[in-house]
Amino acid sequence: MKTATIAFAASAVVILGLGATWLSISARQSEDVFAKCRSSVVAGGAGQIGGPFTLTDENGREVTDKDVITEPSLLYFGYTYCPDVCPLDNARNANAIEQLEAKGYSATPIFISVDPARDTPEVLREFTDIMHPKMIGLTGTPEQISKVSKEYRTYYKVQNPGDPYTLIDHSTQSYLVLPKVGFVEYFNRDAKPEQMADRMACFIDAWKSSGSGN
């Protein structure tokens, strides 16, 4: 009888623990105004990605994140000398922004270079003008680029430092960032522009409904 009592008590503790965990998760989800829009999970929560930065824009001006992210923005880290991935990804992002605009929403595509040695403001401006009229190109010192890359948990590595034709390995996620909120979602390379536009619209609607978009 004592064994049965102990087993029953242990089961009760487990059930109570599971119940508390479920309540905790439910509470966090109910507090997350973007819960219905999310399709990705970030370890530690979305607040672990992103942060303030100071960089140089394609016109040679020093800018901060507050200067640049003035509306919903789609960030991508890459470099203009990239032979295929970056042009394709940025063209896809530009397409997603255009489809979003067709739905009545406004957003800005942002291209952050991980190749400050070659990507001068002039080079960036030529690249972004081809991609989308609203696209903003950003560069900076190696230290500034390293800092913002770490904030967004991106990866890049120059294959042959000093080689003017070197390739750079880099991650390829695109990040949806909202003013006053910060990072809310990322998109992998296989995301289609129409899917991105739909999900971005969901986040923007929730952002406006929460009052942060006013």
From TrEMBL:
Belongs to the SCO1/2 family. Disulfide bonds join 82-86. GO terms for molecular function: metal ion binding. Keywords: Copper, Disulfide bond, Metal-binding. This is Protein senC. It comes from the Bacteria. SUPFAM superfamilies: Thioredoxin-like. The keyword Disulfide bond applies. Cu cation binds at residues 82, 86, 170. Pfam families: SCO1-SenC (PF02630). InterPro entries: SCO1/SenC, Thioredoxin-like_sf.
